[in-house]
Amino acid sequence: MAIVIGQDINSLLRRSARSFYLTLKILPRPIRPQLSIGYLLARISDTICDTEAILPTKRLEVLDQFLTAVLEGPHKFPDLLIFIQHQAKPIDKELLEIAQRGVVLLHSLPEFDKAVLQRTLKIIVQGQRFDLVTFGQELTQPKPIPLRDEAELENYTYSVAGCVGELWTELCHRHLFPNARIDMALALQRAVRFGKALQLVNILRDLAQDLRRNRCYIPADQLAKYDLNPVDLLAPGNWPKFKPLYLTYTRLARKYFKDAWLYTRAIPQNQFRVRLACAWPILIGLKTLALLEASNPLDPSTAIKIPRSHVRSIILRTIAGYPIPGFWDALYRASGGLPLTSNT
Prior knowledge:
Blueprint: H1 7-17, H2 19-26, H3 32-49, H4 56-72, H5 81-85, H6 90-97, H7 99-107, H8 111-135, E1 145-146, H9 150-175, H10 184-205, H11 207-211, E2 215-216, H12 220-225, H13 239-266, H14 272-293, H15 308-320, H16 327-334
Parallel strand pairs: 1-2
Helix pairs in contact: 1-2, 1-3, 2-14, 3-7, 3-8, 4-8, 8-9, 9-10, 10-13, 10-14, 13-14, 14-15
């Protein structure tokens, strides 16, 4: 059964998904609609969470109602009018205006696809709920609230990103290469780390801005080891003291990206589009880590972003070099990827 997303939703995805839209666009048709719907609904729930003009208790209430609609059907859809009225960005207003159609599309999917998307969205909303409960306090001045420990960070990165790797893997295996000889347990483990790597990059890149929104995703127990607290991170001058801890997380992200690259290599060679859709965010993520390590991420005036020309170069080189043995691995190494043959 063909799943028709609609040109208006595709346009909205292109404008809201930014770099991730490159991934959606290159995906094979048998899985593109499902992942597009999943991304759309996750962005909608994220927009509900981030509507700071509305009290956290109300946001939690409506977020739970939205999840009920995702799980039970469009007839359970909440009234989002007050949220729509409080959107400062037109793109966020459009997302909420189209939200019910997204739920309708979800419930039009075949049963397997609907079930794996519902499971994933339930986990994502739990992560967003955790974020809102942890950081949603109304404060009159910046006072960043940290995660407590590494376990909370691991759970959070799994909930909002790692679980998407599982979804991706199950849909690909079901619709694209059901007969491929793949170690699914290993593939799922690596897929989770793939998602966590991307989320860690987001956390490390957005650190200064998040701190000024009272969010500190660097755990308190790790900060304490360096005689630091979240308020210290508001001062860019504390970068030399914080840098050793920060670099432990860039190294962790690189370890996860190594698993992501091994995951990509294990995808059947004839799945050109899927392999491209995996390779691009890995290579972009590795280059972003290099820029972060060479900057002061505590400085809110420092904007770390890979130039479009570099992104275009990655796209062209991965496509042109695909038939050449070893070319992709050379790109991975040149981008700062860890050795693939070691246990690093």
